């Protein structure tokens, strides 16, 4: 891990030039490398070259940066198999076409997850300990030392007197013995046997021909064998020069807590043979020699963590390096991989929304910060608005902003299902949400979304992230609760609990997780505040590091953590006050309602703050950075505009429906006032050098296409009557608000509204602006039992409106504030205004008669490899149409 920390040069590897001028110059046209990618599900294998080309071209047109190929289960009968020449040729073709289109192509080092397949035999399969307990008589007993299942065997035997022993005796046996001899005793006894057995876990969602056991991630031999068979075939077909990275998903090797070489490795690392005392993993033995139960579990957990890092992650990284391609990984899950294990990978990735929580995104971004990586990606939209095809562009925007608030700087969307052109109905889909491709009727809005996210990702790689608080991962306490394989990330997250991270983030600070191995090189002054939560035990090296923090002038706050001195202890309810007493917030917020999140990046000559509204209501928030700056400006990721802020808080605006400023704001006594609409994000930049361009009076100015708000001169409500048509239906008159729910078939995803608008010369003063406002969002709480992230609002249009004036396209409205500038198109006179409303494909999905037969055919041919989720919720809270009365607003110049 890096020896520096936030604010002291935590590392800028992979970061862009960290100056205000560089930020400004690159803002409008973001680096293509910052565009979101998509996980591209290849079913089968069963791909056609023409369709591969079409889908890559559609990705490029949507502003996506590339694709990560993931080989998953078949959906129809195919003679092809995973790893076949035809599959590998299709992969090579995709890589070459992606390169031609300027897209990145990554590939997963296996099919399904976790890694494994038919090439994995018992000697390479994932393992666990199984404990067998029986009461026996005083007579001697011979126990067969081999199980009937291939590769399983006896690890250890332990005998205790009586039926509830408090003392156990290890019964030695030769490793190659056919039977274990238990000698005679004095009375009834209990025997405890530890068996090494394969977990039996099979690769999930595997392609045809890729079925088989999951490999032993604790064994370098098993990892190398998989890479020799699968990895070499993939990179033999596609040169590294055509690949962005090779990828491993989160580790999901359940109960993996054993490997054949573990006793030898354990003894070498911990200094004693674990086998004679192995029973203490599952017993509470009183007294005896050697470590107690808690210490043995700690030692076992540490050993497992070291083995998965060295024998899986590092082996994959080194293999990838030998082939000239980076190794990207989600390093969390089972076996209990540590946060520091990310040092054994090239590219860091997380997943999961929850900016006020400890998520896998936070786990990954913390590691990236410590390692000095400017790029940290996330698997985003994994369960977005389930079921498939139900997600909206507003859902995608909202979840992506949440990930950015957790320290993420690049996205891999989950995902894009390959579908052949001849597939009936809506086509192929993944079993889980989402299905994010050009089959969604709202897809015309995707280029605007991807460009906005690319701007934000690029900005958040400039300079260095500011995080004042380190939260120590209580790893040893988590290990004492587990006797074998477990998920260290989840266990420590649950120990820390949700209130501590929420208090940090809503209080105006940012934080990193740090673990014991990271402290070996982390400077004691890297963080002003270190939080130790619910820790009862820790390595002596960690205690010494905390002493060094105190000596360097830092503050240690112990939240119900007996491992720290008594004077540092606070109750969880007192934590926020203790943190405020130790350190002023990096950013103070008023009016945020706990829904405004910030990320601070320190530039060479200024400060950058991402400010994001994570809720469904308009928030007018006063922001006071701890670091004062002479000049402030706001950058809007939605249109690439920049705007200087004046010194008046009144420069802001009044509300979403009545004059709110898309980029409104002002400065008053050091507080910057901004108005943020539902799920909107802005970038605030402060500097002391040359200010952003302003007008002659030094007041708020229009910059690069983003106009300041002005007082409305006139408003024209467009209630109707409008003409409405859908597909081949006859034209009819409607008044707004209007929904075609219940009027038209569920699969109807397009409705066209038209109206004639007359604008008088007196209504448009010289220099005035004209905008169309579809209205505010309405809060819509998440339904009970709903799965996946979703924006908790009902927008005024579901989901987008393509706007035309007099037959010419003027733009798309899909995000809050739902407005479009029509100044150049609506001048005095009579105009024809058309709104083409495009929804999701949820309706078409709900009534698609081919879905059931597709699933049944796959099961008939290949067994039950997946189950489509939440199909009964496809039409939940769907209200197609325009839900407010649009307003034409004339604003004085």
Automatic annotation (TrEMBL):
Chain residue ranges for the region called Disordered: 1-30, 631-669
Pfam families in alphabetical order: Glyco_hydro_106 (PF17132)
Biased composition (Basic and acidic residues): 631-646
UniProt feature, compositional bias: Gly residues: 1-12, 655-668
Protein name: Glycoside hydrolase
Organism lineage string: Bacteria, Bacillati, Actinomycetota, Actinomycetes, Micrococcales
Taxonomic source organism: Brachybacterium kimchii
């Amino acid at each position: 891990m890096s020896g520096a920390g936030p604010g002291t040069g935590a590392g800028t590897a992979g970061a862009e030039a960290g100056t205000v001028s560089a930020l400004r110059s690159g803002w409008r046209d973001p680096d293509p490398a910052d565009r979101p990618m998509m996980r591209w599900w290849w079913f089968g294998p069963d791909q056609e070259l023409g369709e591969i080309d079409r889908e890559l071209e559609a990705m490029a047109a949507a502003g996506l940066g590339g694709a990560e190929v993931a080989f998953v289960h078949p959906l129809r009968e195919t003679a092809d198999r995973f790893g076949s020449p035809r599959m590998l040729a299709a992969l090579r073709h995709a890589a070459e076409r992606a390169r031609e289109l300027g897209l990145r192509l990554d590939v997963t080092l296996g099919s399904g997850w976790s890694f494994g397949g038919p090439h994995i035999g018992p000697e390479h399969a994932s393992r666990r300990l199984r404990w067998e307990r029986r009461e026996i008589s005083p007579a001697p007993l011979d126990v067969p030392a081999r199980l009937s299942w291939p590769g399983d065997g006896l690890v250890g035997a332990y005998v205790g007197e009586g039926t509830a022993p408090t003392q156990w005796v290890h019964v030695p046996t030769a490793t190659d013995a056919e039977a274990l001899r238990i000698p005679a005793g004095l009375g009834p006894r209990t025997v405890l046997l530890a068996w090494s057995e394969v977990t039996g876990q099979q690769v999930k969602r595997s392609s045809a021909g890729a079925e088989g056991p999951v490999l032993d991630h604790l064994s370098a031999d098993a990892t190398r064998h998989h890479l020799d068979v699968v990895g070499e075939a993939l990179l033999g077909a596609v040169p590294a020069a055509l690949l962005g990275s090779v990828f491993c998903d989160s580790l999901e090797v359940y109960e993996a807590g054993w490997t054949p070489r573990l006793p030898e490795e354990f003894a070498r690392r911990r200094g004693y043979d674990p086998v004679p005392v192995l029973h203490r993993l599952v017993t509470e033995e009183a007294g005896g020699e050697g470590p107690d139960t808690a210490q043995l579990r700690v030692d076992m957990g540490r050993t497992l963590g070291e083995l998965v890092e060295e024998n899986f992650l590092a082996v994959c990284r080194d293999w990838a390096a030998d082939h000239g391609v980076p190794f990207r990984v989600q390093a969390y899950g089972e076996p209990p991989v540590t946060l520091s294990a990310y040092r054994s990978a090239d590219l860091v990735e997380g997943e999961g929304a929850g900016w006020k929580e400890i998520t896998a995104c936070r786990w990954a971004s913390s590691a990236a910060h410590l390692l000095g990586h400017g790029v940290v990606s996330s698997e985003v939209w994994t369960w977005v608005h389930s079921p498939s095809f139900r997600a909206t562009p507003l859902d995608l925007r909202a979840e992506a902003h949440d990930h950015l608030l957790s320290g993420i700087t690049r996205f891999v969307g989950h995902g894009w299902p390959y579908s052949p052109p001849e597939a009936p109905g809506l086509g192929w889909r993944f079993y889980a949400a989402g299905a994010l491709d050009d089959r969604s009727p709202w897809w015309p809005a995707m280029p605007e979304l991807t460009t906005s996210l690319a701007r934000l990702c690029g900005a958040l790689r400039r300079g260095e992230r500011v995080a004042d608080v380190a939260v120590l991962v209580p790893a040893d306490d988590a290990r004492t609760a587990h006797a074998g394989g477990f998920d260290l990330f989840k266990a420590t997250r649950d120990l820390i609990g949700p209130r501590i991270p929420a208090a940090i983030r809503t209080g105006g600070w940012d934080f990193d997780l740090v673990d014991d191995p990271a402290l070996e090189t982390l400077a004691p002054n890297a963080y002003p505040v270190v939080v130790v939560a619910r820790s009862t035990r820790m390595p002596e090296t960690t205690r010494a590091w905390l002493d060094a923090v105190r000596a360097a002038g830092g503050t240690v706050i112990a939240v119900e953590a007996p491992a720290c001195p008594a004077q540092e202890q606070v109750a969880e309810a007192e934590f926020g006050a203790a943190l405020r007493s130790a350190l002023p917030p990096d950013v103070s917020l008023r009016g945020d309602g706990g829904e405004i999140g910030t990320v601070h990046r320190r530039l060479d000559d200024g400060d950058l703050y991402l400010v994001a509204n994570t809720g469904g209501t308009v928030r007018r928030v006063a922001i006071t950075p701890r670091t004062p700056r002479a000049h402030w400006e706001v950058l809007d990721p939605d249109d690439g505009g920049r705007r200087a802020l004046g010194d008046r808080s009144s420069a802001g605006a009044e509300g979403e429906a009545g004059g709110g400023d898309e980029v409104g704001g002002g400065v008053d006594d050091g507080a910057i006032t901004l108005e943020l609409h539902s799920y909107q994000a802005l970038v605030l930049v402060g500097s002391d050098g040359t200010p952003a361009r302003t007008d002659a009076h030094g007041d708020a100015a229009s910059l690069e296409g983003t106009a300041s708000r002005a007082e409305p001169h006139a408003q024209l409500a467009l209630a109707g009557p409008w003409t409405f048509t859908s597909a081949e239906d006859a034209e009819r008159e409607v008044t707004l608000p209007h929904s075609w729910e219940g009027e038209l078939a569920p699969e109807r995803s397009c409705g066209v509204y038209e109206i004639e608008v007359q604008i008088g010369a007196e209504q448009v003063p010289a220099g005035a602006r004209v905008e169309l406002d579809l209205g505010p969002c309405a809060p819509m709480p998440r339904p009970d039992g709903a799965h996946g992230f979703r924006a908790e609002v009902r927008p005024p249009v579901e989901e987008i409106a393509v706007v035309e004036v007099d037959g010419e396209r003027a733009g798309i409205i899909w995000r809050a504030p739902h407005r479009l500038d029509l100044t150049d198109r609506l001048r005095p006179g009579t105009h024809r205004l058309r709104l083409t409303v495009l929804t999701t494909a949820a309706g078409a999905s709900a009534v698609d008669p081919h879905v059931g037969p597709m699933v049944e055919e796959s099961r008939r041919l290949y067994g039950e490899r997946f189950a489509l989720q939440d199909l009964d919720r496809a039409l939940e809270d769907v209200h197609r149409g325009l839900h407010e009365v649009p307003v034409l607003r004339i604003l004085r110049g």
